[in-house]
Amino acid sequence: MASQRDVKNKIASVKNIQKITRAMEMVAAARLRRAEQRIDALRPYADAVGRMTRQAAQAAGAEAARLPLLTPHESEQNVALLLVTGDRGLAGGFNSQIIRAGVRLSAELSDEGRTSAWYATGRRGVSSIAFRGHELSGTYTGFADKPAYADARTIADDLIQAYVGGRVDRVEMVYNSYISPLTQQVTNQRLLPLSHEAIAGEDAPRDQEGPRPLVDYEPDPEEILKRLVPDYIEISIYRALVESAAGFFGAQMTAMRSASENAGELITDYTLQMNRARQAEITQEIMEVVAGAEGLS
């Protein structure tokens, strides 16, 4: 049995860890509230961009299919995989589930005879992909906690240039969509080529029935759609970055709360162990006093 001093040292160590995990939980909770506010502010704008893109695509008609970002390549030999992860850990399986989903998707592509071009945001994703021996075509770090729209634009520009230039034939994005502080859902979204159904809204909720407003486009709908589609890709990436940031703080808050509770259970167990050690020491001392008294009598 461990001595009373050893158990006391263990209790002090666990208490220090518990203080750290509780502080991290509080910090994550505060950042989560701000991230949720950003999501609430972003979603109406993202929905509006999608709605305008669909309306322009409907007005453009068959001309919409001629845009480079809407035109599939003849073969999809090289597929770009964009993994959205965090810069830090201590968030349970938040980062690892994205890595696993990306590796699984790459394996499926390999079985189909296709190759993968890796892109990753967040230090965790970059380091994990590099550790597995894959070469990264694009790395974006340092903004996972609080992404800016300029960060999404940088990523979108690289992917659009790679697609238009023929270096990649398809772009898939894997990220954690934010459901609640306790739930983050791994989401796989195709960015390029944008399907005509997604742009035209055939797989999206229908607008309300009734007469549609007449819209005069200046310049023509094709030119407006040409400008809107890159914005649509940018806002899709930015939305993924913002939801991933909120999901990270939710996962970290949950993980730190669980760690604090586990530390409390360890403290209880060690306290019981210390009491047993103290009782054993007291019993030993009594036995020694009794034995000494019997020796003198």
What would a concise description of this structure say?
The chain is α/β, with parallel strands linked by helices.
| Sequence stretches where pLDDT stays below 50 over 5 or more residues | 202-211
What distance lies between the first and last C-alpha atoms, to the nearest angstrom? 33 Å
Named at the architecture level, the CATH assignment of the largest domain is 3-Layer(aba) Sandwich
- State the oligomer: single chain
Label the overall shape.
elongated
| CATH fold-level name of the largest domain | Pyruvate Kinase, Chain: A, domain 1
From the alpha carbons, calculate the radius of gyration and give it in angstroms.
28 Å
Assess the beta-strand content as a share of residues. 5-15%
Global mean pLDDT: 86
Largest sheet: 5 strands, mixed
So what's the CATH class of the largest domain? Alpha Beta
Which superfamily, in CATH terms, is the homologous superfamily of the largest domain? ATP synthase, F1 complex, gamma subunit
* Separate helix tally: 6
Lateral arrangement of strands in the main beta sheet: 3-2-1-4-5
**SSE order, as H and E?**
HEHEHEHEEHH
* Helix percent band: 55-70%
> By helix and strand content, what is the structural category?
alpha/beta
- Count of individual domains: 2
Write structural notes for this entry.
- This protein folds into 2 domains: 4-25 and 256-296, Orthogonal Bundle (Helix Hairpins); 29-254, 3-Layer(aba) Sandwich (Pyruvate Kinase, Chain: A, domain 1).
- The chain is elongated.
- With 297 residues, it is of the alpha/beta class.
- The chain is built from 6 helices and 5 strands, in the order H-E-H-E-H-E-H-E-E-H-H.
- 33% of the residues are buried.
- It is 61% helix and 13% strand.
- A 5-stranded mixed β-sheet has the order 3-2-1-4-5, with helices on both faces.
- Residues 202-211 have low confidence and may be disordered.
